[in-house]
Amino acid sequence: QVQLVESGGGLVQSGGSLRLSCVASGRFFRIQDMGWYRQAPGQERELVAIATSAGVPNYADSLKGRFTISRDNAKNTVYLQMSSLKPEDTAAYYCNARILRYPWTGAATDYWGKGTLVTVSS
Prior knowledge:
Elements (H helix, E strand, L loop, with lengths): L1 E6 L2 E4 L4 E9 L3 E10 L6 E6 L5 E3 L7 E6 L4 E6 L8 E10 L8 E4 L3 E6 L1
Parallel strand pairs: 2-11
Antiparallel strand pairs: 1-3, 3-8, 4-5, 4-9, 5-6, 7-8, 9-10, 9-11
């Protein structure tokens, strides 16, 4: 079993900051890409940021400069530092990881956390 558990969400005022964390646990061989998506009420889930196992980031264009993704591979953890938050950043933030379960596995599997809610008040 592989589990992703997010933490760090909450209520923050506009202009504030939050740091999200996501830890992967269970039995697996290697994590490839790991990152964050978000889904606002009535909206589709969208990419926030993804980092490769080497830490190379890929951000949604609209979020560059305000959000920073980082990884600690030794801890199987990915972080999302969010600053200058806006009310439109209000959403459930979901951790995603592409994981190889075994060394002989040909293709990685996508895993999702249950989400952490971020609410930005104006």
